[in-house]
Design brief:
TIM Barrel; binds ligand LLP; alpha/beta; 8-stranded parallel β-barrel; 9-stranded mixed β-sheet; Lyase, Ornithine Decarboxylase, Chain A, domain 1; single chain; 2 domains
Length: 404
């Protein structure tokens, strides 16, 4: 995505052509950016030959999951819906891992029937339930135990998952208790130790601590795990000044770990694969000026892209046509929803804008469409994929008729 003659391009297509063809708001992905991200991730960890399971919660579009499958990746799912979608995309069950603190009986039954690679269990009660279902079905189920390593991932508070105050995983004591109680079960095969400490982590150091905790845990448990699932969480550069994640360092920490433990590593990345492959294209409906501010009212809202409202997250705003005329006022880019928090960005100074101009909101591929809703009874946007000079719809715009 780049500017040429002041026009914003997505691959070889002028973005203004896309909004003319598909309307707004529109999620627009670059297929080749997605492919590049996958290649980069795979090559960063080539020396340890991991199984990479794309975290479907970050983006569940079927065409995107088909691309994930073509790249050889598996899927990390957290619901029956995501499992069905991953299977529909052709991802093999033996590359699917299932996480989550509250998997219900129906979901567990489905996972057992489909013989997925691992159910990563997070509590004693869940393990009892999996064992009960496995016994009923007379099958042996491969499970992972998720450890809560009590590590501060130093990320947004609302997306940190690895501390004792967070609801995820088993504390060290519970982990060891459960392991001792179930390691001889006839119906369960405890194959994996899993962990996920949070999301949008830009520093490798929390991972380094996490690996130390895992090392310690494996030694204490005296159990042979076939897999260590390290979760996802690698951060991206929503702002240019954010430092980029040091994959080299993380890889070498894992290489050292593997010298001591002969296991297969699993990763569950979402954001690092898909976030920067998409923009949300939107049109200015009105501009409302006050003494202090210019409210730029867009046709996209917090129901289309929830991250700024929910976490105060930053997403850049880009004009589709640059005019290089500066307006010094504070610009608040807001949506039409009746909530003060329906605001994408407040920024001092922007280029001169007028009503009906088009804007792109950047880096929305992860937790963009997948977190969207019908709040205010607004239909969800269309998703479009750009591949060099061509565009295609990968999910139709919702029709009002279907939600009313
Ligand atoms: N594995 C597990 C068990 C997870 O809970 C998550 C994300 C991932 C993998 C993928 O993490 P990633 O590589 O994408 O960071 N909605 C929030 C993010 C919530 C993440 C939840 N878990 C956001 O928009 O920032």
């Amino acid at each position: 995505m780049y500017f040429k003659n002041n026009k914003f391009f997505i691959e070889k297509i002028e973005s203004l052509k896309i909004v003319k063809k598909y309307g707004t708001p529109t999620y627009c992905y670059s297929l080749n950016k997605l492919k590049k991200n996958i290649e980069n991730f795979q090559s960063s960890f080539k020396s340890i030959n991991p199984l990479i399971c794309f975290s479907v919660k970050s983006n569940n579009n079927l065409q995107i999951l088909k691309e994930i499958k073509r790249s050889g990746m598996g899927a990390d799912v957290v619901s029956k819906g995501e499992m069905i979608q991953a299977l529909k995309a052709g991802i093999s069950p033996n590359k699917i891992v299932f996480s989550g603190v509250g998997k219900n009986t129906e979901e567990l039954k489905f996972a057992i029937e489909k013989k997925i690679l691992l159910i990563n269990a997070e509590s004693k009660s869940e393990i009892i339930e999996i064992e009960r279902l496995a016994r009923l079905k007379k099958s042996i189920v491969n499970i992972g135990l998720r450890l809560n390593p009590n590590i501060d991932a130093r990320t947004l508070k609302k997306i940190s998952t690895g501390k004792h105050e967070d609801k995820f995983g088993l504390t060290e004591i519970n982990f060891l208790n459960v392991l001792n109680n179930f390691k001889d079960s006839k119906f369960l095969n405890i194959k994996c130790l899993s962990v996920h400490i949070g999301s949008q982590i830009t520093d490798y150091k929390p991972y380094s601590k996490m690996i130390n905790v895992l090392d310690d845990m494996i030694n204490k448990s005296n159990h042979v795990f076939d897999y260590i699932d390290l979760g996802g969480g690698m951060g991206v550069q929503y702002k240019k000044k954010t430092k980029s994640f040091n994959y080299k360092k993380y890889n070498s920490i894992i290489e050292n770990f593997l010298k001591k433990h002969k296991v297969k590593i699993i990763f569950e990345p979402g954001r690092s694969i898909i976030a920067n492959s998409a923009v949300l294209l939107t049109q200015i409906i009105y501009i409302k000026n006050t003494n202090k501010k210019s409210f730029v009212i867009l046709d996209a809202a917090m129901n289309d892209l929830m991250r700024p409202a929910l976490y105060g997250s930053y997403h850049g705003v880009i004009p589709l046509l640059k005019n290089n005329k500066k307006n010094k006022k504070i610009h608040d880019f807001v949506g039409p929803i009746c909530e003060t928090t329906d605001k994408f960005l407040s920024i001092k100074g922007f280029q001169n804008l007028k009503e009906k101009d088009f804007i792109a909101i950047s880096d929305v591929g992860a937790y963009g469409m997948s977190l969207s809703s019908n709040y205010n009874l607004r239909p969800k946007p269309v998703e479009v994929m750009v591949d060099k000079k061509s565009t295609k719809i990968i999910l139709r715009r919702q029709k009002l008729l279907n939600i009313i």
